[in-house]
Amino acid sequence: MGVKPAIGRKSNKNPPIFSHEFVIQNHADIVSCVVMVFLVGLMVQSTSPVASLFISLHHNVSGTEPTRDVPKGEQFLYEAGWKDICAVFFYSQVCIVMHAILQEYFLDKISKKYHLSKSRLSALNESGQLVVFHLVTLLWGGDAILREGFIFNISYLWDGYPDHPMSFLLKLWWVVQAAYWVHTIPELYFQKVKKDEWAGRIRHAAAAFAFVAAAYGFKFQRVGVCLMVLHSLAEFVAHSYRLNTILRGEREDYLDKFLSVVNGAVFVTVRLCSLVLGVLTFYYGLAGVAPLLVRVAALSVLVTFQVFLMFNFITEAIKQRQEARQLALSKPKKEKKEKPKKEKVKKIPADDSDLPEVDQNTNKTLRQRQAAVKAK
Across the chain, which distance is largest between two alpha carbons, in Å? Predict the structure, then answer.
């Protein structure tokens, strides 16, 4: 008995139910059913409290519903709490469904059009998903920064610490950030990623989730959103450049050189801005407010991470330049073919060409004697 997959990886074969292949082909449909269970539970009065624990945001510290006296109500502000773990679980399921939709209707069609190899296909799937995620992070986080006024008054990043309540959109942004990196772990199984790539991707997801959890838990949400938006800008440009290389090949044309320069410039600028922002916040802004150990640990982690990224970037750039140089030297040079020199043929005077060979020699001897007489 088998079920034809709707969203996810398609196959002509119908695998048995509850087999690994069945779960992989239909994982998006299965997870979407789980999401629907929570949504339906929210509509039923008896299960609504449990469902709202996963869907709604909790731990609000202020805000009121609209009333006759206050038609607009007051804005709800939130803080971090243990119930956010339930929200992270629910939105990680939503991320799995969105991942499958993007894979099915965009990335798979692109890969079929370009007929990519397995290694390039894996890189396309990874960078394609991360480009969309970092673009959403950049736009959503940038909008939150503008709404909160952090960009116009940088002192908001540390004023009033640790009493830093979040607006609804800002808290949801943090929950989605954590949910995305949680969902990347089961995606390794669902997308049939090679075993040798698991370690690198798990380290990447674990480091990103640890940063999100630390910034969220230690009430560094304001400076954290600024640092993550900067990082997403650099990652969006880097993965866009990588997609260009995957789809167009390693062409050394003006577009490739332009994107390479933009990628390097944005990367270095983001690293410097992150260091400046971190020093201003943790060394100067939070001095005397946050515990010294927390400030030193946060600044040390930030500086170490930026130096690590910069070191990897420089190493990779040097490696690519050396490979390009070796490739240029390995190409055989086109040798110019030398044209054979034509031997000059002594022209015979037109008057002598019609005479026999003996008479031609006689005339030649006479001319030589006349030339000798003239020389004397």
Answer: 136
Residue whose structure tokens are 């673009």:
135
Q: Which residues pair with 60 in a beta bridge?
A: 78
C-alpha of 272 from chain center:
19
- CA torsion sign for 161, 163, 169, 172 is positive
Domain ranges of the chain: 20-53, 56-328
Q: What is the pLDDT along the chain (376 residues), one digit of tens a residue?
A: 444 444 545 555 688 888 889 999 999 999 999 999 999 999 999 999 999 999 999 998 887 777 777 777 788 899 999 999 999 999 999 999 999 999 999 999 999 998 888 889 999 999 999 999 999 999 999 999 999 999 889 999 999 999 999 999 999 999 999 999 999 999 999 999 999 999 999 999 999 999 999 999 999 999 999 999 999 999 999 999 999 999 887 677 788 889 999 999 999 999 999 999 999 999 999 998 999 999 999 999 999 999 999 999 999 989 988 887 887 788 765 544 445 555 554 554 545 544 555 555 565 666 666 666 555 5
